[in-house]
Amino acid sequence: MAAIDLRTLNNENGGACKKVGSVGTTTQQIILPRWCKTVTVCPKNQAIYFEYDGTDGAAIGGDAFPHPVDVVIQYNPQKNSNDESSIFVAAQTGTSNVFLIME
Q: pTM, whole model, 2 decimals?
């Protein structure tokens, strides 16, 4: 599974929205734009697990946060040494569509 790279999204209007479709039960890495300080996450169809540290395509880690379906939660990702940040999500069962607002 390839990471979803959102670094090219612009923030001309103060932010950007993105739908990540068909997230399965293995970890999906989402690389955030460099300007993103806060990401709002809302899963549809299925609850998800959320992590700041993970490996794309791997099993979700034991410390992942359980994020309920249809609940909006904001996260504050931290930058790594390359001034980049990622989040990692996986459906708890089946597949989930995950909606993101980056600010």
A: 0.92
- pLDDT on residue 102: 94
Phi-psi region at 94: left, alpha or beta (left = phi > 0; alpha = psi -120 to 50): left
Residue 12, pLDDT score: 81
Neighbours of 55 (CB within 10 A): 13
In sequence order, what are the residues at sequence separation of 6 or more whose Cβ sits closer than 8 angstroms to the Cβ of residue 67?
Answer: 41, 43, 47, 48, 49, 50, 73, 89
- β-pairing, 85-91 with 48-51? antiparallel
Give the torsion sign (CA, 52, 68, 3, 74): negative
Contact at 8 Å (CB) between 37 and 76?
yes
